[in-house]
Design goal:
The structure holds 2 protein chains of 2 kinds. Chain A is of the alpha/beta class. Chain A contains 15 helices and 14 strands. In chain A, helix 2 packs antiparallel against helix 3 and helix 8 packs across helix 10. Chain B is mainly alpha-helical. Chain B has a domain of 104 residues. In chain B, helix 2 packs across helix 4. Classes of the chains: A alpha/beta, B mainly alpha. At the A-B interface, helix 2, helix 3, strand 14, helix 13 and helix 14 of A face helix 1, helix 2 and helix 3 of B.
Chain lengths: 395, 177
């Protein structure tokens, strides 16, 4: 089958969630299908400045076609339009303008999609970008939308309620995301499946070998990801410092990832910066728990990574997706507010055997839903469904 | 915190995390019943009250959500998007004319709108803090009422005991012992 993927940015050095999601799916589908990725030359997601060279290249056996962004995003104009669009009940024209200002505005990509009638199924990632919206309008009968939606004001723009009725099928990241989109768009008749993205499995001996590497910090909880206010890190720092003030227990907080928010100077908070994949896994394997304070997640890959290594998760239950996943898997404790954070952390530290058991339950959930064979099987089913419907329409 | 305070979970059996969280919430609730509220607890209560007031006033839920968010997207903004429902050359001319006029209008309107936005922001901040302070005072008040009640009960008991003891002493004296 010939598959085309559309994504706003693409590359080994792009670390965004949806972009990595797209790359992993494209690379896995390329093992059995003919996969092309259509993307822009942008590297930064703020201004969409052209960075990569336009043209085609192979990245991990996947053909990637890059097209130049015609107009960079002016944040002044974008915020101006956004303020108006998010006030609610605005004319459709304003909402369309928001999509265009959000970008990346790349008409050459859309022109290229228009010429590719040989592509059987298109997989479009992230609903909120201009490239996704325009491609969806063009190839709706052959499109699978991977919305990567979370609670954000853009989702409530009327234009998206109509757009969510267009694709031939959906590949959701979670049950909560599916419910959210179906409630907003009333599109229950559009087929779809909760799929997400997979991770390579690890043997028990590999996991055991990793556990001791970060012993000097134990006991510790671990945060992995961008250290940013949008990810709830400001709350995490406040809660953790207060926890340290109130408890004499010598627990540490380890942080892995780039820092947007300054890391507080505190003897029990350690920022390790960027680390290798094996070091990250080692830190996870030895952690008392992974902490995920973000309110806005459509699928947290680090939570899956934590469960792959049988480690429990402490997550913010203001995020429906994280709470839903923890409760379904029995793989983590969802907290809200300092009180619950403090008590949940106490529980994890005071009951190591039960914490381990919670991690094992998370691992079982990961094995059932997020191993690559499971993900590939689900995608194949969805691809066949879209192809069959397409043939049915043309017959 | 001792382990005996928690309900026992058999190691190796299926652990129900919702049950653990229910236990955690119950413990927090008990602390709060005893009047031990944290700043977050008070903030949560105050927020629930503000939401209730807004619901009573039947405010648009989208606006309410923005009012409660940490940014100030609810506030008025001097910026606006120039657009027209017309199309073609006429539309271009109208948009162009509006864009030419806009700097002159904003020269007079911006400072007024900005000042109003500042006042709005101040009042929202003030009202949120007032609700929080009232919530804190009401909690303190309830705690004090509870403590006064308890002291009164203790005083009654002590007085009754005192009376009984006095009667016992009198009884023993009249009994000739």
């Amino acid at each position: 089958m010939r598959i085309g993927c559309v994504i706003q940015r693409y590359g080994l050095e792009i670390s965004g969630g949806a972009e990595l999601h797209c790359r992993l799916i494209a690379e896995h589908l390329a093992q059995r299908h003919d996969v092309d990725v259509f993307t822009t030359c942008a590297h930064d997601y703020v201004h969409w400045k052209n960075y990569f060279k336009a043209g085609s290249e192979y990245i991990n056996r996947v053909r990637v076609h890059r097209f130049p962004v015609k107009k960079t995003r002016s944040m002044y104009r974008f915020i101006d339009v956004q303020t108006l669009a998010f006030q609610g009940n605005q004319p459709r024209e304003i909402e369309e303008r928001w999509i265009r200002e959000n970008g990346p505005f790349c008409p050459a990509l859309i022109d290229a999609v228009r010429t590719r009638s040989d592509v059987d199924v298109w997989i479009l990632f992230s609903y909120r970008y201009w490239t996704t919206v325009e491609t969806l309008r063009l190839v709706r009968d052959r499109a699978i939308l991977v919305p990567t939606a979370e609670h954000d004001p853009a989702l409530h723009l009327g234009v998206f309620a109509d757009l969510f009725k267009l694709p031939a099928a959906f590949a959701y990241n979670s049950i909560e995301e599916r419910n959210l989109i179906q409630t907003i768009a009333g599109n229950r008749d559009v087929p779809g499946d909760v799929i997400g993205v997979g991770l390579p499995s690890m043997s028990e001996t590999e996991v055991e070998a990793l556990k001791t590497q970060f012993n000097r910090y134990r006991p510790y909880i671990l945060y992995i990801g961008r250290i940013d206010k949008n990810k709830g890190c400001d709350h995490l720092f406040r809660y953790f410092r207060r926890y340290c003030d109130e408890h004499s227990r010598p627990i540490n907080l380890l942080l892995i990832g780039s820092s947007v928010l300054p890391t507080p100077q505190h003897p029990r908070i350690h920022h390790l910066g960027f680390v290798s994949e094996s070091e990250k896994n080692a830190a996870l394997a030895g952690a008392a728990a992974l902490i995920m304070p973000s309110q806005y997640e459509s699928l947290s890959m680090v939570v899956l990574e934590s469960w792959r290594l049988s480690r429990p998760v402490l997550c913010n239950r203001s995020c429906e997706v994280l709470e839903g996943q923890c409760l379904r898997s029995n793989g983590g404790l969802p907290y809200r507010g300092y009180e619950e954070f403090s008590e949940a952390l106490n529980y994890i530290i005071e009951h190591p055997a039960i914490a381990d058991r919670i991690g094992v339950q998370g691992n079982r959930y990961y094995q059932q839903h997020y191993q690559w064979p499971v993900i590939e099987q689900k995608y194949d089913r969805l691809l066949k469904l879209v192809q069959q419907r397409q043939r049915g329409t043309h017959a | 915190m001792s382990e005996t305070e928690w309900k026992d979970i058999e190691i190796g059996a299926e652990v129900d995390v919702s049950q653990i969280m229910a236990q955690i919430r119950k413990r927090i609730e008990e602390k709060q019943k005893a009047g031990i509220y944290t700043e977050e607890g008070i903030a949560e209560l105050a927020e629930a009250r503000i939401l209730q007031f807004a619901e009573d006033a039947e405010i648009d839920s989208a606006l309410l959500e923005r009012l409660m968010s940490p940014d100030h997207s609810w506030n008025i903004n001097p910026g606006y998007v120039i657009s027209t429902h017309r199309s073609g050359i006429q539309a271009k001319l109208i948009v162009c004319a509006k864009k030419m006029v806009r700097p002159f209008i904003r020269l007079y309107s911006d400072h007024l709108i900005s000042r109003q936005a500042q006042i709005n922001q101040y009042f929202v901040h003030l009202i949120h803090n007032l609700v929080r302070e009232i919530t804190r005072l009401q909690i303190n008040h309830s705690n004090l009422v509870y403590r006064v009640d308890r002291l009164e009960r203790e005083k009654d008991i002590t007085e009754r005991r005192l009376k009984t003891l006095e009667q016992m002493v009198q009884f023993k004296q009249t009994d000739g012992r």
